[in-house]
């Protein structure tokens, strides 16, 4: 199957691969997995004191589309508030990367990872 | 031919339950295949020939589904009106996903180090977990705990995929 140029770009030069300290109260970790293809995705975000995401890292085991989806969202997340981050939709990821229908679930995985990371962070920070 | 209306368990004359006698499964499959073998329908009408072929195809699908633990559990859940949502349910338990991550890292490490015995060792560990999940499924089906069974199927789906990936890496290393 042919990957789009954007998928290939993120796949070959993934942005923000790495790990943040999951015990840091400013760090939220989201782990999700797709049983159908065995992909596993870990997405971490770090917020500053004003609640803006200043760093995002990911680690993904999976196909090119799953890696590209997570790489792309780490770029998108920086500078956003948690509420803005939670609004990122899989359809926007799929559109940006020109994912074919069979790879839509990779963008769903990325959206779910963001939601899980935001939820983890919110659970750490008393309102 | 009313055979076409039957579910896979009925088609292969087995009780619709998670535990399957694999010897009986083999026997029933072979006798059904011989019943609908094209050689027997040489002089039959076009309609009968077509139906026998459909049953043969369905028998094959039934056999493949019931023989495989994960596929059998998934199918049995479907018969009970439960979809396992392997395409859309991404919320697996954190410790299970962490383990998947660790296994994936171990595969990468072993691959770089060309360490086939480390991969064999990993397969042993993974098979043990598959065994546990399969035993868990027996209990879950017996108790009609279908949501728990559904999660076990999703876990087995990961395990089937990672096992296949390890076998592929081993094969590549052996042929290198």
Notable characteristics:
heterodimer, A: alpha+beta, Sufe protein. Chain: A, three-stranded antiparallel β-sheet, globular, B: mainly alpha, Helix Hairpins
Description:
Chain A: A scaffold on which IscS assembles Fe-S clusters. It is likely that Fe-S cluster coordination is flexible as the role of this complex is to build and then hand off Fe-S clusters. Chain A: One of its GO terms (molecular function) is iron ion binding. Chain A: One of its GO terms (biological process) is iron-sulfur cluster assembly. The complex is a heterodimer of chains A (127) and B (176). Chain A is an alpha+beta fold and 127 residues long. Chain A has a single domain, classed as Sufe protein. Chain: A (Alpha-Beta Complex). Chain A is 44% helix and 20% strand. Chain A is built from five helices and three strands; from the N terminus they run H-E-E-E-H-H-H-H. Chain A has a three-stranded antiparallel beta sheet with strand order 1-2-3. The longest helix of chain A is centred in the C-terminal third of the chain and has 21 residues. By secondary structure, chain B is mainly alpha-helical. Chain B folds into two domains: 65 residues, Helix Hairpins (Orthogonal Bundle), CATH 1.10.287.110; 82 residues, Monooxygenase, CATH 1.20.1280.20. Chain B has seven helices and no strands. In chain B, helix 3 packs across helix 4 and helix 6 packs antiparallel against helix 7. Chain B is globular and about 60 Å long. The model of chain B has no long low-confidence stretch (mean pLDDT 93). Chains A and B meet through strand 1 and helix 5 of A and helix 5 and helix 7 of B.
